[in-house]
Design brief:
CATH topology of the largest domain: TIM Barrel
Structural class: alpha/beta
CATH class of the largest domain: Alpha Beta
Number of helices: 13
Strand content: 15-25%
Strand order of the largest sheet: 5-6-7-8-9-10-11
CATH superfamily of the largest domain: Enolase-like C-terminal domain
Shape: globular
Oligomer: single chain
Largest sheet: 7 strands, parallel
Number of strands: 15
Length: about 375
């Protein structure tokens, strides 16, 4: 494919409800959308999942915009690209910046699937159309608010509940949840809020039969996680620590985790996500799709990725209405009463992009090429 232009847009999309983690509280998403166009005028869409500040990782909205505009878009515009999987290699001279790279790379996958006339999930090698879904629930104002929120999500059919924890909002909260919901699939996400000195706290969590504890220790660590996993029964799930298939191989070899969360932005796009999934499947480590408060475009890419064989656990790919009054795709993402999402058969990401909605939300725009 020959990419003739890369369009960048920043949109501001207010959340239906604030979302709080150990990093902080988010009420509105600043999202960078990428649209790539080929020589025939066909288009593909991607989304940069970087946050509003450099808290989840070092990338954030402003750094991603500058990197996309100044370097990454310049690399792909005017190039005859062998295929979408090759885009990652083209961008390798730029170190890091995986979320910015993923925005362009995933857009090229959408474009290529449209060129071939096939749904993206099939083009990626997905093995099932229906994927199991869970929800991620942020830290609430009160335990009662959390209980009510879990009740609503279970009534909506979601198969797994994930709650955020932080020091002071952990063991007692999990105990309360377990007393109220004794048999649900429950996991906790610490977002790197603890250290190995907190091992006694994690031993206390063992009694609650959690599916996993996600990224309890430092964001760039696998060694302390290996030491922690040896001392507790609950599976450790790595998120921020896994940025590549090599990271996954090292973590598995060290025994640092028993589960891995895959996020498209964190690993750099679909080609890299497939490599991580392959490593985990070979090592008998289950994976699941993590979420970054994506708009419908990023959500559609997550759905496609989650159809790969290794994604055996319910992911954080939930309905559009949990986050947005109105999404930027048609139709919005919906979840069945059984807690599943069915990937669409339409070529590409499977959804129409609502351009008029995007225009209203756009606060800046740049076209390269």
């Amino acid at each position: 494919m020959l990419i003739t232009s890369v369009e960048l847009r920043e949109i501001r999309l207010p959340l239906v409800h604030p979302f709080e983690t150990s990093f902080g509280r988010t009420t509105e998403r600043r999202i960078i959308l990428v649209r790539v166009t080929d020589k025939n005028g066909q288009q593909g869409w991607g989304e940069c999942t970087a946050g509003e500040g450099p808290f989840y990782c070092e990338e954030w909205t402003e750094s991603a915009w500058a990197t996309l505009k100044t370097f990454l878009a310049q690399i792909v515009v005017g190039k005859e690209i062998q295929n979408a999987a090759h885009v990652w290699k083209l961008m390798q001279p730029v170190r890091g910046n995986r979320m910015a790279k993923a925005a362009i790379e995933t857009a090229c996958w959408d474009l290529e699937a449209k060129q071939l006339g096939v749904p993206l999930w099939q083009h990626l090698g997905g093995e099932r159309r229906e994927i199991p879904c869970g929800v991620s629930i942020g830290i609430q104002q009160t335990p009662g608010d959390l209980l009510e929120k879990i009740e609503r999500e279970l009534a909506a059919g979601y198969q797994r509940i994930k709650i955020k924890i932080k020091p002071g909002w952990d063991v007692n909260i999990v105990q309360l949840m377990r007393e109220r919901f004794s048999d649900i699939h429950l996991m906790v996400d610490a977002n790197s809020a603890y250290t190995l000195a907190d091992v006694d706290l994690f031993r206390k969590l063992d009694q609650f039969e959690l599916m996993m504890i996600e990224q309890p220790l430092a964001h760039n660590d696998i060694f302390d996680h290996a030491a922690l996993q040896q001392q507790i029964k609950t599976p450790v799930c790595l998120d921020e620590s896994i940025r590549s298939s090599a990271d996954a191989e090292h973590a598995i070899a060290l025994g640092a985790c028993r589960v891995i969360n895959v996020k498209l932005g964190r690993v750099g796009g679909h080609a890299q996500a497939r490599e991580v999934e392959k490593v985990c499947r070979t090592g008998n480590i289950p994976v699941w799709c993590g979420g970054m408060l994506e708009s419908g475009i990023g959500r559609a890419h997550n759905i496609a990725m989650a159809t790969l064989a290794g994604f055996s656990l319910p992911g954080d790919v939930s309905a559009s209405s949990r986050y947005w009054e109105e999404d930027i795709i048609d139709p919005p993402v919906t979840v069945s009463t059984n807690g599943t999402i069915t990937a669409h058969e339409k070529p590409g990401i499977g959804f129409d992009v609502n351009l008029s909605r995007i225009e209203k939300l756009t606060v800046r725009k740049e076209v390269i090429g």
